[in-house]
Amino acid sequence: MNLRDQLLKAGRALGERWRSLPAGRKAVAVLAGAGILASLIYLGGLIFTPRYAVLFSNLQAAEAGTIAGKLQQMKVPYRLADQGQTIEVPENEVYNVRIELASDGTLQNTDSGWSLFDQNKFGMTDFEQQVDYQRALQTELRNTIVQMNGVQDAVVNLVIPQKSVFLQNTGTASASVLLKLQPGTSLTPDQVQGVVDLVL
User: Fold this and answer.
1) Which helix (H) or strand (E) element contains residue 49?
2) 44: Cα separation from own chain's centroid
3) Which of 91, 55, 56, 90 is nearest to 76 (CA)?
């Protein structure tokens, strides 16, 4: 008996076995099969659906519209959160998208929405929250800038004056960026402006 005949015989045996089952057991088998199929579909969705991360937050409506329009042109999937004030993109594209938007001037007229971190941590003083936020922001900026073509490493230092009820003028925020370029490369004016737009 060849393989084809064996498969046909096995199929007929299964069919006869199924027909001989009581209606109740058939219903249980169908429900169990449907449950397994639904579980597989759900797990497949979790595996193949990309994880989203914050690209920019605390955006004005006009800023969100400008960035969303550019993302559509770039064919980058995105979604809005916080009533349109936050834009999220696939997690593995966050830094590349940021540097692309900065390099082409999209961020030039926006506030960049760099409020990516929760500063209200229970048990921390205002000063500790400020330091923690500043360090996280410097790291986030550095991780974005090193995605730029030709940049091997970067150091970002921010000076963010702490608000005080006792001082009328606490100074303005400033930033310094030190870049280590890959051998034989240099930045274009657009890339330089992109870095400026990111940190200002």
Assistant:
1) none
2) 20
3) 90
**Which residue matches tokens 């280590």?**
180
Task: Give 3-state DSSP helix, strand, coil % of the chain, rounded to 5.
Answer: 50, 15, 35
Instruction: Compute the distance between CA of residue 83 and CA of residue 1 in angstroms, rounded to an integer.
Output: 67
Residue-wise pLDDT for 83-139, tens only, equals 888 899 998 888 888 888 877 777 765 555 444 444 455 566 777 777 777 887 888
Is residue 90 within 8 A of residue 131, CB to CB? The reply is: no
Question: Rounded to an integer, what distance in angstroms lies between the CA atom of residue 160 and that of residue 157?
Answer: 10
Query: Is 3.30.300.30 the CATH classification of the domain at 126-198?
Result: yes
Specify whether the CB–CB gap between 195 and 178 falls below 8 A: no
CATH code linked to domain 52-104: 3.30.70.1530
Coil vs helix vs strand at 81: strand
Strand partners, 181: 151
Answering whether pTM is above 0.70, one says no
Q: Which two tokens stand for residue 131?
A: 């330091």
- Is there a contact between 71 and 97 (Cβ–Cβ < 8 Å)? yes
